[in-house]
């Protein structure tokens, strides 16, 4: 101790301390970057470390109540490990998540996060485990899709729930398949690849990306979207058509019978 | 015939006239005639005349509109806006053309044509003399044909009339295709041991790894596209369509003895033909494992061998026993073990 106190005033003490300080900070920095690099190896393709970090912050603030810290699931929400960026793009991008209240199924509403925040959340969820990714732009380009082939695939795979005119339909116990009118191509795509809520999963082995593009091209086709036959009445089939004819049609018939038999004044 | 006028013609029938004492209610007669506005006011009659002719004019305009719709609009191919306008013009035009005439004629009759109440008496019945006359005509005709004197004519006519309908009977009998489409054919589908499950419509075989948990795939037998006749192919497809689902194997709640190897690592296959009236059941909810029929809301539980849990269906959906072949593709173990689709008389039990 005495020796140290004496050497404190040694002319080289300053140099030695400086050397020690540099070594320490440098070593710590090196150690820190190694940890960072270890994390970076888990980085999902197409996302930056900043996005993952920002996404985690957003997740902890907005989603962790139900999905748990670390997104490993609680009683109120499923684990998101392996859910993939596509799930986030669909659920958050269409406003279904965060859920406003519990019900038979999460419903579409104005999105709570902007595109940037959505992709940060997607980056975080994708970093938890591999899952379906957000599709490349070329698979959302309806000009490249074959609408007629897409129509055949739609009628086989989708029409039973979403209705032959894509107007949606009822399922069991308050659940329903939503109308596909006005849904963004990326959300149609990610719904197929992830199977949100009770929708079955149509992964790339079942419906390859090119076929998904054909289906989107069909849904966005003018011929399919317009209704040259006149009023479509929501394209719901016999329910809306029957209601109209039983109320308006019969009222007209009864009205004209009353008029026919009444005396002129 | 008694007529009640409005003062200009005929005498008014007074209520209760001729009412006998035996009837409990006196004949009230006709209500008093009330003249219409057009009967007393020439201005009102003129107005009604104009209204009727406007209705007829509307009809003319409607006819012109439908001609415009047919010949002028919608001539450019692929222009859907044009097509829609054409349909609208055709529909609205024809409706106006018909309605204008109809409404105009009724309005005319109601306001301008005479509206005197009339009592028309029942016509007298025919007398006995008329009846005797008719009888005599029939007897004369029979005599003139000489059918009683010449029995050969009568007998050959009867024979000819009796056998003439027989060709129709034979032809209608041959419409019976029960040998081709009868109950025996309902009992079997194209599925058999080793028949691969392929995607509808591409016909590509399926590996177990192609389905992730929650996947659903619409499946046909691989030998279906080989059928060249379109009608036959559709008839066979209608019986053989299958929905393939992959669940978490832990979610299966009940497996009957003998069915333990009917699934493959959580992959389960069922006939898509509803056992109620044969609608395609393919509305699959992957979390509840419910299959819903869109026609009458019959609900089947995939976790309990497609047991009916709601709706009018009487039996579970037939399950297709599946496994994988040496190359790793999904194949059927056998045909369905029971007839698919709705119940029919010859179906038998279970």
Automatic annotation (TrEMBL), chain A:
Heme c 2 binds at residues 158, 161-162. Keywords: Cell membrane, Electron transport, Heme, Iron, Membrane, Metal-binding, Repeat, Respiratory chain, Signal, Translocase, Transmembrane, Transmembrane helix, Transport. GO terms for molecular function: heme binding; iron ion binding; quinol-cytochrome-c reductase activity. InterPro entries: bc1_cytC-su (IPR009152), Cyt_c-like_dom (IPR009056), Cyt_c-like_dom_sf (IPR036909), Cytochrome_c_Oxidase_Subunit (IPR050597). Its EC number is 7.1.1.8. GO terms for cellular component: plasma membrane. The keyword Repeat applies. The chain crosses the membrane at residues 243-261. The keyword Translocase applies. Heme c 1 binds at residues 63, 66-67. Residues 50-129, 145-223 form the Cytochrome c domain. Its main location: membrane. It is found in: Cell membrane. It is an enzyme of class 7 (translocase). It comes from the Bacteria. It catalyses: a quinol + 2 Fe(III)-[cytochrome c](out) = a quinone + 2 Fe(II)-[cytochrome c](out) + 2 H(+)(out). Residues 1-30 form the signal peptide. It is a multi-pass membrane protein. Binds 2 heme c groups covalently per subunit. Gene3D superfamilies: Cytochrome c-like domain (1.10.760.10). PANTHER family: CBB3-TYPE CYTOCHROME C OXIDASE SUBUNIT FIXP, CYTOCHROME BC1 COMPLEX CYTOCHROME C SUBUNIT. The cytochrome bc1 complex is composed of a cytochrome b (QcrB), the Rieske iron-sulfur protein (QcrA) and a diheme cytochrome c (QcrC) subunit. This is Cytochrome bc1 complex cytochrome c subunit.
From TrEMBL, chain B:
Residues 1-36 are annotated as: Disordered. It is a multi-pass membrane protein. Keywords: 2Fe-2S, Cell membrane, Disulfide bond, Electron transport, Iron, Iron-sulfur, Membrane, Metal-binding, Oxidoreductase, Respiratory chain, Transmembrane, Transmembrane helix, Transport. The chain crosses the membrane at residues 52-73, 85-106, 152-172. This is Cytochrome bc1 complex Rieske iron-sulfur subunit. GO terms for cellular component: plasma membrane. Iron-sulfur subunit of the cytochrome bc1 complex, an essential component of the respiratory electron transport chain required for ATP synthesis. The bc1 complex catalyzes the oxidation of menaquinol and the reduction of cytochrome c in the respiratory chain. The bc1 complex operates through a Q-cycle mechanism that couples electron transfer to generation of the proton gradient that drives ATP synthesis. InterPro entries: QcrA_N (IPR045603), Rieske_2Fe-2S (IPR017941), Rieske_2Fe-2S_sf (IPR036922), Rieske_Fe-S_prot (IPR014349). PROSITE patterns: RIESKE. Residues 262-331 form the Rieske domain. SUPFAM superfamilies: ISP domain (SSF50022). It is found in: Cell membrane. GO terms for molecular function: 2 iron, 2 sulfur cluster binding; metal ion binding; monooxygenase activity; oxidoreductase activity, acting on paired donors, with incorporation or reduction of molecular oxygen. Pfam families: QcrA_N (PF19297), Rieske (PF00355). Its main location: membrane. Belongs to the Rieske iron-sulfur protein family.
